[in-house]
Amino acid sequence: MPIYKTITSQNGTTIYVWKIEESLDELKTDLLLQEHSLTRLNGMKSELHQKGFLSVRKLLKHAGYQDLNLSYNEFGKPFLDDEKHISITHSFNFAAILISDKEAGIDIEKNREKIVNIHHRFVNTEVDSLSDEDLVKQLTVIWGAKESMYKTYPYGGLSFHDHIGINPFLFAEGRSTGRVIFGSWKKEYEIKFEFFEEGFTLVYALEKH
Description:
The chain is an alpha+beta fold and 209 residues long. It has helices at residues 24-28, 35-42, 47-62, 115-118, 135-150, 160-163, and strands spanning 3-9, 13-19, 70-72, 78-80, 85-91, 94-100, 104-110, 164-166, 175-182, 185-196, 200-207.
């Protein structure tokens, strides 16, 4: 299918979401990939990962870019050649890109029970605001928010547990705030999230000025 959802947020930020329903051949249609992108694609053992990779390139094309406009630094952070900020995510049958005038990150996660078993690895002060009701969704928002903020940091080495925090939130409001504090990098973020009917959570973080 084409675009599943488009979200236009503040400060020149647009999010494009793709629901992956096509075959690999259909996704490859009309895509021009750089040589290193083809090598990366062909090296993926999972067809699901290949589809996610190609769906991101479909979204780039929809947004007016091509694969050749995209590059990555040594830590895997993506960049566009026009100096706009970009963040990329895919999970199962969803892929999304965020393009913004400001530093921003995005994450899509499937709501899964197993997150309860690993929450001690990424939840710190947020534990005081957790309740037993909808615990999986709460933890998924926290993870997604931390992943989104993590993606804004260009050098690697961040700890979800030690360096990234999110303030309490209500599902009905769909927003919160968060922070990354690591060495000289001390930034505050607006956090926004929403749930898809298919059991997925979309979270994105926008740097506050």
